[in-house]
């Protein structure tokens, strides 16, 4: 490398020595030799003169693909404040001019561009007015309170319509709700880190038919469409007791997710996890309470609840299993026993083993107990004056209820001693 540099230095110095250090005999030759030199400037092509100003600024202010994958520049895709200078770019005006370094690159190929005037654009002002009008009418996407999801404009909790028709069959009366939409980063040997979207939806007609599906694709709309169509192809039928709730309490689990589901009276509503609420609305269940314990993985919650609904039995099936009458007690009926189902063959008292589970709730819950919060007494119940209050009003307790029962049974409020001493009542009447 040193030898090459030395020879190059020798070649550079040689014409300079000819010009300044030689005699007049060589000057004619030098003048003659200067005709062989080119006086045109050598174009130095680089990144800054090959591109216009817009692309140069974009390269400085934007985020690279590698940076975007790592989560840098998160605000790049957000909706920003309206740009009032849009259409008023340096280098672009009423007169259509070509400005090297602003509206065009400095060098194009091997040619050095020069400032020049281009043909006028008669439609320029119309395009600019149209652009500004569209900016003034621009509004942020706003959904109604009915259409919004669980959290604002995000997809989970939103409706995406019925599944696509299969052959000649259409899903009339069906509606699909998004339960989950998340992005997945998958590392591959050839493509590197790729981004996919995974969607989970539930679809149903509100009359006992429902199904759920998973879909994965490169884009979110494609993943939602796949999940919706798969849910429509995997429909399941569920029986609904009296058109509003389940047949009995049950326990279900999937993985480390455990769910305790309770049957409720009409008008109670849905007190449960939001994903379970969407499933109940798709099926047509209106009154239910569910408690989730363990892992709150959304896919596990959905699968566990569907397994529990499929495993529930009707009242007649339960009566046939135990070969005993199924009796229901309700608070609104003053806990009067009502026979709900009777088996074809009833066992006698001697045929029932002593260690058999006869409690209905314990039997349908598979001997599992729901953990309930302990109720502590009110702060005033532990104080001395509360005992004095109870003793003072003991003889007036339940008087209103007793008066009501007397009116129902006798038609009037009268003493219990009337049955024992009827002659007293006759004396009063005379």
UniProtKB/TrEMBL annotation:
**Would you identify the family this protein belongs to, as annotated?**
Belongs to the universal ribosomal protein uS5 family.
Source lineage: Eukaryota, Metazoa, Ecdysozoa, Arthropoda, Hexapoda
User: Single Gene Ontology BP term?
Assistant: translation
Query: What species is given as this protein's source?
Result: Papilio xuthus
Q: What is the protein's given name?
A: Small ribosomal subunit protein uS5m
Query: What residue stretches are annotated with the S5 DRBM domain?
Result: 192-238
On whether Mitochondrion is a keyword of this UniProt record, the answer is yes
| Assembly and interaction partners | Component of the mitochondrial ribosome small subunit (28S) which comprises a 12S rRNA and about 30 distinct proteins.
InterPro entries assigned to the protein according to its UniProt record, in alphabetical order: Ribosomal_Su5_D2-typ_SF (IPR020568), Ribosomal_uS5 (IPR000851), Ribosomal_uS5_C (IPR005324), Ribosomal_uS5_N (IPR013810), Ribosomal_uS5_N_CS (IPR018192), Ribosomal_uS5m_N (IPR048584), Ribsml_uS5_D2-typ_fold_subgr (IPR014721)
What's the domain of life for this entry? Eukaryota
Compartments annotated for it: namely: Mitochondrion
């Amino acid at each position: 490398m040193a030898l090459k540099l030395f020879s190059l230095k020798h070649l550079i110095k040689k014409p300079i020595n000819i010009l300044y250090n030689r005699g007049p005999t060589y000057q004619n030759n030098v003048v003659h030799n200067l005709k062989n030199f080119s006086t045109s400037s050598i174009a130095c092509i680089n990144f800054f003169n090959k591109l216009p100003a817009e692309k140069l600024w974009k390269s400085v202010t934007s985020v690279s693909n590698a940076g975007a994958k790592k989560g840098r520049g998160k605000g790049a895709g957000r909706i920003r404040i309206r740009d009032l200078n849009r259409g008023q770019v340096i280098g672009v005006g009423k007169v259509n001019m070509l400005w090297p370094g602003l509206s065009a690159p400095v060098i194009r190929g091997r040619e050095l561009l020069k400032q020049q005037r281009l043909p006028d654009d008669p439609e320029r002002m119309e395009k600019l007015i149209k652009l500004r009008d569209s900016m003034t009418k621009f509004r942020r996407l706003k959904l109604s309170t009915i259409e919004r999801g669980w959290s604002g404009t995000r997809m989970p909790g939103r409706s995406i319509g019925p599944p696509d028709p299969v052959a000649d069959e259409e899903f009339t009366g069906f509606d699909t709700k998004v339960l989950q939409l998340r992005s997945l980063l998958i590392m591959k040997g050839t493509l590197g880190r790729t981004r996919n979207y995974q969607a989970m939806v539930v679809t149903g007609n509100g009359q006992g038919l429902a199904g759920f599906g998973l879909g994965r694709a490169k884009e979110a709309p494609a993943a939602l469409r796949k999940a919706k169509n798969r849910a429509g192809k995997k429909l399941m039928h569920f029986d609904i007791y009296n058109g509003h709730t389940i047949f009995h309490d049950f326990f279900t689990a999937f993985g480390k997710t455990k769910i305790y589901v309770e049957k409720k009276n009409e008008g109670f509503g849905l007190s449960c996890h939001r994903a379970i609420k969407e499933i109940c609305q798709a099926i047509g269940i209106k009154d239910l309470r569910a408690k989730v314990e363990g892992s709150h993985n959304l896919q596990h919650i959905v699968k566990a609840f569907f397994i529990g609904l499929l495993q529930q039995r009707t009242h007649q099936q339960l009566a046939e299993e135990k070969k005993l009458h199924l009796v229901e007690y309700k608070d609104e009926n003053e806990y009067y026993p009502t026979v709900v189902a009777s088996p074809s063959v009833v066992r006698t008292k001697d045929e029932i083993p002593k260690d058999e589970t006869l409690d209905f709730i314990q039997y349908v819950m598979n001997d599992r107990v729901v953990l309930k919060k302990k109720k502590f007494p009110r702060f005033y119940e532990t104080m001395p004056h509360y005992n004095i209050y109870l003793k003072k009003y003991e003889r007036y307790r339940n008087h209103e209820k007793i008066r009501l029962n007397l009116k129902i049974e006798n038609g009037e409020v009268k003493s219990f001693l009337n049955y024992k001493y009827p002659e007293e009542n006759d004396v009063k009447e005379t």
